Amino acid sequence: MARKASIVDKETKEIRRMILETSYNAQAGHMPSAMSIVEIVYTIYKDIREEDVFILSKGHGCLALYSVFAKMGIIPKEELNTFCKYDSRLGGHPHSGKMKEIYSSSGSLGHGLPMAVGVALAKKISNCPGRVFCLIGDGESNEGTIWESFLLANNLNLDNLVCLVDDNNSQIRSLPMEAIEKKIEQFGWSVETCNGHDQEEIKLKLKKQDNPLCLVCKTTKGKGFRSMEDNMFAWHHGPPSNDQLKILLKELEDA
Amino acid sequence: MRKRLAENLISLAEKDDKLVVLIGDISHYLLKEFEERYPDRFYNTGICEQSMVSMAAGLASQGFRPVVHTIAPFCVERAFEQIKIDLCYQNLDVTIVSVGSSFDYAHLGCTHHCYEDISILRSLPNIDLFIPGNSDEFTSLMFSSWSNGRPKYFKLSKDEHTQETKVKPYECQVLNMGKAATALFVTGHLLQEVMKIPNIKNYTLVYSPTIEPLSRSTEDLIAEVVRTHSKIVTIEENSTIGAFGDKINDIAMNYNHSILNKKIGIPRLFCDNYGTANDHRQALGLTWLEIEKKL
Predict the structure, then answer these.
(1) CATH number, domain at A130?
(2) Residue A22 belongs to what domain range?
(3) What is the spatial distance between Cα B52 and Cα B43, in angstroms, rounded to a whole number?
(4) Contact yes or no for B216/B226 (Cβ under 8 A)
(5) What CATH number did the domain enclosing B220 receive?
(6) Domain for residue B162, yes or no?
(7) Tens of pLDDT, residues A128-176
(8) How many independent structural domains does chain A possess?
(9) Is 0.90 exceeded by the ipTM?
(10) In chain A, what residues touch B81 (CB-CB under 8 Å)?
(11) For labeling, which of A128, B44, B223, B281 is most exposed (least CB within 10 Å)?
């Protein structure tokens, strides 16, 4: 499990601030799930090439995706204020029909990885360069399609496919996925583990692959905020009140 | 029609290098020639229909036009959410071709029956639904709708009618204008049974292998037939809830025409006997003798 630590990196601090304020303004959003994937999504998008594809299979973490978009200038920062509004491009779960930077619609779990298998296969058939990144959650790996996809990707030798697991222990209360690395390895994938809040380590572990690669990112749900880290289930999809927002922003500033 | 699928796929693949076939571990021998000619465009994805449909979506998102093929209950009912979200919501050009229509696999029991496929798929936007009545219709509909950019579903039955039809996707065909006050609307191979009715020429007969969507002019035509006849009988080998019969009802209501529709099809029950498809047709009254009694 990732150690609890405050966020000192200025850029990811800013992304977290955007997540907080966006969730407060809309009174919606799965904040702790977004906080646990900030570094993963930011690392991927900083290096993503035209020919690469990123699928956020755990669509409820989309506040992180949108905030990374705002940070990188893919969308104007003000657009975050439209989050979850009727005619917004930024819904409570992402939809590919809204903007080309969203590669796949997600929200119901277990769809993104098999779709990523199809994308990676398409690149193989047409001899196209580029890698396909798919981010799933440890809870999402309860879904059978995740394991079907591990089986299929290995069978199809998809060495251009990377599955990132946001291993934030969100499933400890129901069906825990213990030793997920060993299980995935049994499906013939190369498996690496990293601190999912360390951008340099994520980047290093993603540098090369000869097989379908799974990077198990050890993360903390609600990362950066003690109250969320300690009460992740209470916060799962609860937006902050005005008083809570002030406390959380101060915690972020003081870190 | 299953044999024609193999021929159609080869013909289409000759012209379209974006065609990719995904099968759910059925029809291996049938598609052997395709596999030999296009090994990099043929994938037996095993018995994981939900992932197969999602994979097809991934392929389509990169410009391929996948054809997904397996038995109806598994590719429609089991993978319904994948069809809804990965295909329809994202409007991707994936063609699903099922076999095991309704109770074609009668002897295998209800797990292998699928009379509700059209009903549940009709509730989804962005998917074209076809029930070809014979192999030639299947070829015509598949070729005409190919690469239209949308999800498509073809329900292939084991039985075929032998009538001469000229079908076009999204349109119906008026096979006969009769003098009787009753008009018959038919889809699929049951046209063969209907044509056995001795005085069929007395009835107006409309045939439609497309269930959704129908063109505006086709809906105009159907509405006019409803308006000018006092009784409508819809005949299909699908559930009577939500499929072709209800499509005709919906058109009539959208045009503010009152409709008295006797829906002939499969009622809301599990056909939990075995035997053959014909046994079930006999039991459910899907024969010309029983249909005639209801006109």
Answers:
(1) 3.40.50.970
(2) 10-254
(3) 10
(4) no
(5) 3.40.50.920
(6) no
(7) 999 999 999 999 999 999 999 999 999 999 999 999 999 999 888 788 8
(8) 1
(9) yes
(10) 108, 111
(11) A128
